[in-house]
From TrEMBL:
The lineage of its organism: Bacteria, Pseudomonadati, Pseudomonadota, Alphaproteobacteria, Hyphomicrobiales. Keywords: 4Fe-4S, Cytoplasm, Iron, Iron-sulfur, Metal-binding, S-adenosyl-L-methionine, Transferase, tRNA processing. Residues 2-122 form the MTTase N-terminal domain. It holds the Pfam family Radical_SAM. Binds 2 [4Fe-4S] clusters. One cluster is coordinated with 3 cysteines and an exchangeable S-adenosyl-L-methionine. Residues 143-378 form the Radical SAM core domain. It is an enzyme of class 2 (transferase). This is tRNA-2-methylthio-N(6)-dimethylallyladenosine synthase. Its EC number is 2.8.4.3. Residues 378-440 form the TRAM domain.
């Protein structure tokens, strides 16, 4: 049997796309494999967001070239496919830099993968068009193992933050219809999924078509998904502060399946830097927004992304970021050193922050965020919380799952609890996860 190795290097949507590419290849008779040496087709689903992520691809491709040579000497063909956002941004360059690559395919064209692979036997193919047809209409049924799943509901971005490649690699904002999303969600639930995370580069700008022909908002979509029997939990990511509409804030109080967790990137606490980043909001506007979200759902856990060392960022600007973090308080966060990306406005600026300063600021910010995360985890000790059991734990007899606030918990329980929401008393907060004990079955699967 032919085998396909598909690897994701990027965000949740990149992981979603990788899974769908495995579906496309599965429909063509390729069984999935985790062993790259065995693969007849190797797909690298790449990420262009920071230089490090993009460069990783070229070193990986160097190794694959050798593997391809070895397999050829053994009489085996290997098709090497570069997909994702680096493919979209650097299609021609990839082909020029690495002769072992057979197919380059962008994030909007991967439904054509079987055809592209077939054509690559004649000559190497680059497909980075934004096709007129919708890839979602041409993808085979989803196969999903597991209790939680991502579901793309919106793709692309019209925001053009000065540092970011996403509007170029993913194109303009497009929302899928409510019917398309509900249809995919129903299939997931039929395969045992209990938690669905609605994903989009700007998911709270969602405005897909509803059955009555009007535009649905994200809360409308959440209600439609929550109505599917078997859906226990809904999450959504990633949101932009400026699209945090009143009905979405209210939804956190009104939709029981919607989990009390919000990933709302602020990037910086300095108004000067926010302006230079083209974020179109101030630090205080973000603080007031968080107050309103907390008024609607007092126990909501917050998460954010931060960039340190954006061009022109002074010590004072950075101190504003630290102050915002202290005032808001985050359960978790991702923080990055600014990485200049070709084609973005910020990359043209001459006032780059030295690498050493970026490193210092990142270390200080991460230390503060770590302290907040640990305090949040410790505050859970002794509480009884609902846990959706996702999988077997590391030790025999253990299972692992997540709290509504996205904290990972390990505890002893039979494997039959996988897929159910159970009550767990949190015993202790460890470095990265909590331990606890089963209290009772809160709900049957
Ligand atoms: N659509 C999402 C996520 C975009 S990418 C959003 O708007 O938040 C995820 C994160 O990567 C961003 O939030 C930002 O913090 C970071 N990022 C994007 N471009 C970057 C760059 N050039 N350098 C460093 N970090 C970057
Ligand atoms: Fe990038 Fe900004 Fe769009 Fe997020 S909102 S994807 S950071 S341009
Ligand atoms: Fe990376 Fe593209 Fe996602 S650049 S973060 S894989 S949208």
């Amino acid at each position: 049997m032919k085998k396909a190795f598909v690897k994701s290097y990027g965000c949740q949507m990149n992981a979603y796309d990788a899974a769908r590419m495995a579906d496309v290849l599965g429909a063509e008779g390729y069984a999935p494999t985790d062993t790259v040496e065995d693969a007849d087709v190797v797909v690298l689903n790449t990420c262009h967001i920071r230089e490090k992520a993009a460069e990783k691809v070229y070193s990986e491709l160097g190794r694959l070239r050798e593997l391809k040579g070895e397999r050829r000497r053994a009489g085996l063909d290997t098709r090497i496919v570069v997909a994702g956002c680096v493919a979209q941004a650097e299609g021609a360059e990839i082909v020029a830099r690495q002769p072992a690559v057979d197919v380059v395919v962008g994030p909007q064209s991967y439904h054509r993968l079987p055809d592209l692979i077939a054509r690559s036997r004649e000559r190497r193919v680059v497909d980075t068009e934004f096709p007129v047809e919708d890839k979602f209409d041409h993808l085979p049924a989803r196969r999903n193992r597991g209790v939680t799943a991502f579901l793309t509901v919106q793709e692309g971005c019209d925001k053009f933050c000065a540092f970011c490649v996403v509007p170029y690699t993913r194109g303009a904002e497009v929302s899928r219809s409510v019917a398309a999303v509900v249809g995919e969600a129903e299939k997931l639930v039929a395969e045992g999924v209990r938690e669905i995370t609605l994903i989009g580069q700007n998911v709270n700008a969602y405005h897909g078509l509803s059955a009555d022909g009007a535009a649905a908002t994200l809360p409308d979509l959440m209600r439609a998904v929550a109505a599917i029997p078997g859906v226990a939990r809904i999450r959504y990511t990633t949101s932009h502060p400026n699209d945090m509409a009143d009905d979405l804030i209210r939804a956190h109080a009104e939709i029981p399946a919607l989990m009390p967790y919000l990933h709302l990137p602020v990037q910086s606490g300095s108004d000067r830097i926010l302006k230079a980043m083209n974020r179109k909001h101030t630090g205080d506007q973000y603080r007031r927004l968080i107050e309103r979200v907390r008024a609607s759902r007092p126990d909501i856990a917050l998460s954010s992304d931060f960039i340190v060392g954006f061009p022109g960022e002074t010590d004072e600007d950075f101190a504003d970021t630290m102050r915002l973090v202290e005032e808001v308080g985050f359960e978790s966060a991702f923080s990055f050193k600014y990485s200049p990306r070709p084609g973005t406005p910020a990359a043209e600026r001459a006032d780059a922050v030295p690498e050493a300063v970026k490193s210092e600021r990142l270390a200080a910010l991460q230390a503060l965020l770590d302290r907040q995360r640990h305090a949040y985890q410790r505050a859970a000790e002794g509480q009884v919380v609902d846990v959706l059991v996702e999988k077997a734990g590391r030790h025999p007899g253990q299972v692992a799952g997540k709290t509504p606030h996205m904290l990972a918990v390990h505890f002893e329980a039979p494997a039959s609890t996988i897929g159910s929401v159970v009550a767990v008393r949190i015993r202790e907060a460890g470095a990265n996860s909590l331990t606890g004990e089963l209290v009772q079955r809160a709900e049957a699967a």
